[in-house]
């Protein structure tokens, strides 16, 4: 049986860039430890936008340019990137949830457990968790609370509660 850790959007713009917060900065070291100690495959997502970001629906609702493909803010945090190997799968995603990630996970017939960590709990972590749950309802799914941060501490807690109600274990 196989375990997979999904590291969601641990990018400069969400940590100490355009949308960074002190809470996001505080989870980098615990996330590094979780990745290093994980027994299984680790995959990564990257929020990925383009020069027309402000013209998109997301850009109109969140008019803060961030994670433009190729920019410094789009890159994984260097401490996280240092853990990637040539075999690491990175899913660039133009939306909150990654359809390609869900499809990849669905291809793995021997999945026992999927764990998520990353940013932002209340947007991309919850979106990916629910997308995975919808596609793989019988696979055990959890989120590492201390390795996640939301837009605000309150919205982080609300997202964790919502995921609990959807039978996603919060560790």
What does this molecule look like?
- With 171 residues, the protein is α/β, with parallel strands linked by helices.
- Helix content is 39%, strand content 23%.
- It is built from 7 helices and 6 strands, in the order βααβααβαβαβαβ.
- It has helices at 12-15, 22-37, 57-61, 78-81, 99-107, 121-135, 153-165; strands at residues 2-8, 41-47, 89-93, 111-119, 140-149, 169-170.
- It has a 6-stranded parallel sheet.
- α5 runs parallel beside α6 (121-135) and α6 (121-135) runs parallel beside α7 (153-165).
- The longest helix is centred in the N-terminal third of the chain and has 16 residues, at 22-37.
- The model has no long low-confidence stretch (mean pLDDT 97).
Condensed summary:
The chain has helices at 12-15, 22-37, 57-61, 78-81, 99-107, 121-135, 153-165, and strands at residues 2-8, 41-47, 89-93, 111-119, 140-149, 169-170. The chain has 171 residues and is an alpha/beta fold.
Low-confidence stretches at least 5 residues in length (pLDDT < 50)? Answer: none
Q: Please state roughly what percent of the residues sit in beta strands, choosing from under 5%, 5-15%, 15-25%, 25-35%, 35-45% or over 45%.
A: 15-25%
Helix content: 25-40%
Note the run of SSEs as H and E: EHHEHHEHEHEHE
User: How far apart are the termini?
Assistant: 21 Å
Q: In terms of structural class, how would the helical and strand content be classed? A: alpha/beta
What's the total number of strands?
Answer: 6
Q: Whole-number radius of gyration?
A: 15 Å
Q: What does the largest sheet look like?
A: 6 strands, parallel
How would the global form be characterised?
globular
Number of helices: 7
The neighbouring-strand order within the major sheet is 3-2-1-4-5-6
- Report the mean per-residue pLDDT as an integer: 97
